[in-house]
Each structure stands twice: as C-alpha cells, then as structure tokens.
Amino acid sequence: MNSQTAPEQHAATLPDLIEKLLQQQGIAYQLRPTSDSWPAAQQVQASLLCDAVGTVLTLIPKDHLLDLKVLGALLGRELEPVRDQQLQRILSKHQLNQLPGLPILFNSPCVCEQSLLEHSEVCLDSGLTGWSLVISQDGARTLMGKASLARFAVPMAGLSMVSSGIEQDGRDFSDAVQNFTALRMKQRLEETIEIPPLPESAQKIMKLRVDPDADIADLADVVETDPSLAAQVVSWAASPYYAAPGKIRSVEDAIGRVLGFDLVINLAVGLALGKTFRLPGDAPERSTPYWEQAIYTAAVIEGLAKAMPRERRPELGLNYLGGLLHNFGYLVLAYIFPPYFKLICRHIEANPHVPPHLIEQHLIGVSRDQVGSWLMHYWDMPEEICTALRQQHNPLYQGQDHTYANLIYLSLALLSQHDIGCGPRMPIPDTLLARLGLDRAQADAAVDKVLDARDALRSLVNKYQTQK
Predict the structure, then answer these.
(1) Which of 22, 167, 285, 374 is the most exposed place for a label (fewest CB within 10 A)?
(2) Which residue in 195, 188, 194, 160 sits closest to 174, CA to CA?
(3) pTM of this structure
(4) Which residues form the HDOD domain (predicted)?
(5) Domains and CATH numbers, the chain
C-alpha cells in the first residue's frame, strides 16, 4: 500500500496503471515530494536508450555517470538516448510527464547498476513532476527482479577537477588532441589544431580598450569597419530591452546615448569572436541554444553586478563579455573533436543529472572550461576573462579575479532554476552570495528582470543569427 508522508500528499496520486503494477508485485511505496535531501547514491536516474534492435532501460545512482561506451561493450549494442519526441509519445501513453525508474512499466530489457540495491531505501522518479517513489531494499529487489545487475556506471566523485593552472590545462588539451583526433603533435598546440587568429575587428577594439585617450568616435569608427558588427550594435541599442527613446540613427548614437562606451567595447569583442567558429550542427536535446544562453547569461550578470555594493563591483563591461563568452569552449570542442562531439552530446542527454563539463572531462580528458580559458590566453584576452571561463563552475573559487567567475556561476545557477542552460540545476551557496555582497532576493530580482524581457532578448538573438 502507499503511504502519505506530507500534508499536500492528497494532491498527487499515481496513475492507475503504475498503482496496479506495484500492487501486483506486492511492492510497498511512499509517494513523497521530490527533495534534494536524499543522498544521491540512493536516488535513481533512469534513461531509456535505443538502437535498431529496440529499447533498453538503464537505472543508475545519481552520483554516477552512465557511460554509453561501457554499457555498449557490456551488451554488444550501440545505444543512444531515445529522442525526446519519441520519449514524450511513450510517456503520454501512460499519462506521465517524466521517465519513471520502473522496469515493470516497459517492455524493454533493464540494466541496473548493482550498487543501487546495497541501500536500505531507494528514491525513484515517479513519472509525475515534483513527486518521487521511496521503496525499501526488498521492494527494490522485487522491482529489479528481471533486470540485469552490473557495474557499468562511473562514480562522479572521481570526475571533479582541481585546476593547477593554465600550463596543466594546456597539457590536458594537448593530450586530448593527440588521443582523440588524427592530428599529430607539433611544437606548439596552436599549430597542431590550427586555431584561427583573433579577428581583426576584435584586435582593433581590444587596442582601444587599453587606450586612455580613446573616445566614442574612435570606437564607432572601428565598429563601422565591420558592417555586420555595426548592424548588431545598432540593433542592440534599438531593441525593446534597452527601451531607448527615439530612433537610433548611427553607431555613434547607439554608443553615446544608449549602450555606453564600455559595454559596446566588450559587446563588440564578444560578437566578433562569435564569428570565428560555427555553431555545431549537433547539440544535446533540451539544451538552450548557444547564443540565447550567452545573451541571457550576460544580461543576468549585468543586473547582478549593478546590484552589488559599489566598492565590490568589477568592471561592468568585462562582466558582460564574460557572460557572452562563458560557453565558448563548447564551440571549440565541436571544432576540434567533431566525431567525439556527437558522443559528448549523446552522453549529456543520457546524463541530465551530470554537469556537461564533467562529462567532457570523463570522455576526452579536457572540458569546455579548460579549452575556452586556454583559447582566451592564446588570444591575449584580459586575464579576468581567462579566469572567469576556467572557474565558472566552481562556486568556492576565491582566488584572483574571483568576482568575474563567481558572477558567471551565480548567473548560470539562477537561470538553471528556470530550466535555461544545459545540465542539472546548480546550487547557490550562501557563501557565494556573501562574497559578492548580494542576498537571494537581489539575485532573484536580477534574473526575473531578464526573464520578463525574454521576448526582447530573443529578438536580439534572432537579429544576431540573421546578420552573422
């Protein structure tokens, strides 16, 4: 029988089919509101995979990563996650809105990570958003009675990285290139992989950035040498997001009256760099498109920085640039490792509970954060940006230029609460907020302002993509 464990329990009931199947097997359960309080080792992550033969359900603990290569070798099959459209059709037949970890519901073989059955209780997704099933060890053994038990998942504890600096990142990058591509090492990594040079327009703008005598007219002259860049700056200023009075008549008008010198300097650099690599044709399903995520992140960072105490605020323009470029390593990985990029995408889909940069680290030995930071160093970009990209997923980072990295982390974490981005929701430690001089209400207000302007921001994304 089921057990009610919360005052609001009466608001949720299992679909009749699942209730009947559990009763037929004599499996007692508790239906509880989903909570992060359960140890990840006792939480079940279900994935439905397929190949030409059919589907396979896998069950692993949420503190593990599902390695499709290991599983494929175990089963002698090349499995990939079921496409989202097909999965939604399967779930809708059972009146479910998420994949439950219930082998009895599917006419598919099930493979279960053996360590799941070592705990006194396990917590499974029920198929209803916000609700989980808690089952005893005996119940779990009954539930997995026809499943194949094996050790095929990778503990996430071994995937966390502690950076030892740009030199180590460069060595990791070199090793990955040598191991996973047909390219052979030369004396310098950048010669081996033929990284494009910093775009000319970006070079000119970066020179202006450090010129104390540069003014709005100088910046407008440089931006106007690149017609598509000029059009983007004008469209940014004219967008409803900035709500500028009157018509924007020129690049100089956009800079002087709306956006400001510092913002345009860094916006122009970010947009110019965006042209050096094409967006990959493949991408993980259910992930926010690259430029949409970049622009949302930059906008949230801008709001967060303005809410910080004045004495703690870093350079606002560089913050915005960090937001635009935070995921740049993703583009570089797609450029350098095309066959393996597809494998990365499929692993991200199969492991929605694992941060993508850890999946990359496991598969190829280097992450997008390392690659993006290395490239910024190679292009002689400001050290603040190099550090921000490298430490953006480390909420504990307190080293040099930590504010830039911390603001990217906080922005990504806030957006993840609204299912924007890629990967699981990111925790927001109180120590991180305190380090930035912010409280949770201020942080939520910054992201809410961006989400309220979502339509205006999407118009900027569309304009950028059509002008590129």
Answers:
(1) 167
(2) 188
(3) 0.89
(4) 195-395
(5) 2-158 (3.90.960.10), 166-196+277-467 (1.10.3210.10)
